[in-house]
Specification:
Elements (H helix, E strand, L loop, with lengths): L11 H13 L1 H9 L10 H15 L9 H11 L8 H7 L10 H23 L10 H19 E2 L2 E2 L3
Antiparallel strand pairs: 1-2
Helix pairs in contact: 1-2, 1-3, 1-6, 3-4, 6-7
């Protein structure tokens, strides 16, 4: 059997579109942070580092969308010694072309969070494999798995779906 191994659910294009939207529009940055988009919601390590820097700038009162946005982002990444981990200056500059506008930021954010939730469900269910460890109590494994899934639901669920509004 020659089955293709699938990578965990994600979209690099949608992740770049979220980051681009946050950089070109302060309202999009606010939406992403308000919806509790977190660095670990991004699959790409580079995107996680960029999101961390954007959140740090935002939390310090920076207004996105101006001509100084990219300079501030690169400076923030340099301060934390994570510019290379974020893909370098050329990659950062290329983010500005990842989305034609921030008009669809809600959609991009929703998709990235949906993929994140799918990866986290996969992770929690793979942790349920502890059931094969006979030194652990089966009910304890069940309770931990259920508790983890309930926590995911609390974080991501609003009106039965991934936070979108």
């Amino acid at each position: 059997m020659n089955e293709k191994i699938k990578s965990p659910p994600h979209s690099d294009d949608l992740e770049r579109a979220v980051l681009c939207s946050m950089l070109i529009d302060d309202k999009a940055a606010y939406k992403a942070i308000d919806k509790q988009l977190e660095p670990q919601d991004f699959y790409s390590r580079a995107h996680q580092r960029i999101c961390e820097a954007i959140q740090s700038l935002y939390n310090n009162g920076f207004t996105f969308g101006g001509k100084d946005t990219m300079m501030a982002l690169k400076n923030e990444l340099k301060k934390t010694d994570k510019l290379d981990e974020a893909g370098g200056e050329n990659y950062i500059d290329g983010l500005l072309t990842a989305a034609p506008s921030s008009a669809n930021a809600d959609y991009y954010i929703h998709c990235v969070m949906d993929y994140s939730l799918r990866r986290r469900i996969m992770y929690e269910l793979s942790n349920a494999q502890r059931v094969y460890d006979e030194s652990l109590d089966a009910m304890e494994v069940l309770e931990k798995t259920i508790d983890s899934l309930v926590e995911l639901k609390k974080r991501f669920a609003v009106d039965g779906g991934v936070k979108l509004n």
